[in-house]
Specification:
mainly alpha
Length: about 500
């Protein structure tokens, strides 16, 4: 009877242990699967560069990554709860096992004592049966000990994996902690100083008289609007209108390189298309949740070492300064100008790295995407040039940006209003009138005939990746943004509702 009780107790303990093992193994597999998914997601992020060229795929992977983070948080919480419950169950099982073990040992001792006391009265067959029963009980005891040891080891492994998952999550949070709060009052001053330096450079080199040898190259001036990709007319003279229109074109070319090469979310990858895709991703995240934008931007910025970023900036400065010099050399650009431009671009990169690492998103724009914020203008393009107030015909552009607009949407704060040239400003149509007069004089003197004798055609501003040009004709043209002078009122009347 005592042997039967021992066997029943052992069977119950074995059943309870098997149930615990199955539950624990299921939770451990779920934790392992979650960790593998998290590691796959992290690996995909580290290898994102080849994928970023397709903005849609980057967005999908980012959403999957965030869902995986949420699932991992939940699985970790479930695992911790399961760990607590199973620890309590194992403690109870251990206490029960200890009690059963004590009972089994007591029964074994009692049986052994009975066997010893009744040895003379029990037959050899009975002794063998009792010995067999004792052996089975001992085997059951050893089996229970092994099960408890296995459960303990599995529990330790699950605990280690949980700690690893927590460490990974802390690492993700550390990326965001690398972002800094920016003193935007000081930052505004740096941007203002950058613009003033840019303006002074352009005045020093392009507001000066050009040599007659340069002005005499008629073929160059005919093609200049297209080679610069700027919708302005360039009379080959040194009149105020000619000098100021050259200054405006130079500001625009530098502005578009600042926007495409330096005022960007991250300096690697260098591709302008990928940079625009990243801007779109960050903007979409910001519209949903500013914290998502910060996490995404922090992950992008942490992908490359500071030394790699420094190398990318150096390459961007070198390429941009050489490209701008090549474009502007016909109207006054030279080697000293290129060196000053390198300093300007290096300063712009330094200022913008502070914006990239800000806890609040800083945006640069050369379009009218923020309709409530007005552009600024340089009055010298109106006051320094005299001419008739009425402009005939249609303007060749809506507006021409001279320096990007910079803002902090989260605070509704404008760092820089940005500067544009309006087609209604004197320098635009006086320069065009002077250019038309030059064309007419060429005809009168027996110069070239054909398309040059008519009004210069409207220049199509297509995106030029090498020069960083923006599709100016696609910008919104809000009449309330430009100064309403008598001249542009007449012009607006001619344009109608177009």
């Amino acid at each position: 009877m005592s042997g039967t009780n021992i066997k029943n107790g052992s069977t119950a303990a074995a059943s309870s242990s098997e149930a615990l093992k199955a539950s624990f193994a299921s939770n451990a597999k779920q934790a392992a699967s979650a960790l593998r998914n998290l590691e796959d997601a992290l690996k995909n992020i580290s290898e994102h560069s080849p994928v970023l060229s397709k903005a849609a795929q980057v967005m999908d992977r980012q959403r999957d990554m965030e869902l995986e983070i949420q699932k991992t948080h939940k699985r970790i919480a479930d695992l911790e709860l399961s760990y607590q419950i199973q620890t309590e169950e194992i403690g109870k099982s251990y206490a029960k096992w200890k009690e059963q073990n004590s009972q089994l040992e007591h029964q074994v001792r009692k049986i052994e004592a009975d066997l010893t006391a009744k040895a003379r009265d029990i037959s050899k067959e009975q002794k063998t049966a009792h010995a067999r029963e004792v052996g089975e009980l001992r085997k059951e005891l050893e089996t229970e000990k092994k099960k408890v040891a296995t459960r303990t080891e599995e529990l330790n492994q699950a605990n280690a994996k949980t700690k690893m998952a927590e460490a990974r999550l802390k690492e993700w949070e550390r990326y965001v902690s690398l972002l800094k709060d920016v003193d935007f009052k000081a930052f505004d001053g740096k941007v203002k100083q950058l613009f003033e330096r840019c303006l002074n450079i352009v005045r020093n080199y392009f507001l000066q008289d050009l040599p007659q040898k340069v002005l005499a190259d008629q073929g160059q001036w005919d093609n200049l609007p297209h080679s610069l990709n700027v919708p302005l007319s360039f009379p080959p003279t040194n009149t105020p209108a000619a000098r100021y229109v050259r200054m405006a074109a130079s500001l625009h070319i530098i502005s578009r390189r600042l926007y495409t090469d330096f005022f960007k979310p991250c300096y690697i990858p260098e591709s302008a298309d990928v940079s625009e895709a990243i801007k779109e991703i960050l903007a979409q995240h910001y519209m949903i949740d500013a914290r998502k934008e910060r996490i995404t931007r922090a992950l992008f910025l942490s992908t490359y070492a500071p030394e790699e970023v420094d190398t990318a900036i150096k390459q961007a400065v070198d390429t941009a300064s050489k490209d701008v010099l090549e474009l502007l050399s016909p109207i006054g650009g030279n080697e000293p100008f290129r060196k000053d431009l390198e300093k300007l671009f290096n300063e712009a990169a330094g200022v913008w790295r502070e914006a990239q690492q800000s806890t609040k998103m800083v945006q640069a724009s050369v379009t009218d995407e923020f309709e409530d914020w007005s552009w600024a203008q340089l009055d010298e393009f109106t006051s320094a040039v005299t001419g008739t107030e009425a402009q005939q015909g249609f303007p060749k552009f809506d507006m021409l940006h001279l320096f990007p607009r910079i803002c902090v949407p989260e605070d509704n704060h404008i760092v820089s209003s940005g500067y544009v040239l309006w087609p209604s400003q004197n320098v635009v149509f006086v320069a065009e009138q002077e250019f038309s007069q030059w064309i007419a004089s060429k005809r009168f003197k027996g110069g070239r005939n054909g398309s040059l004798l008519g009004r210069p055609r409207r220049l199509s501003m297509r995106n030029n990746e090498r020069n960083g040009a923006e599709p100016v004709e696609k910008h919104s043209f809000l009449e309330t943004r430009r100064p309403q002078t008598q001249g542009n009122q007449a012009q607006n009347g001619n344009r109608g509702e177009g």
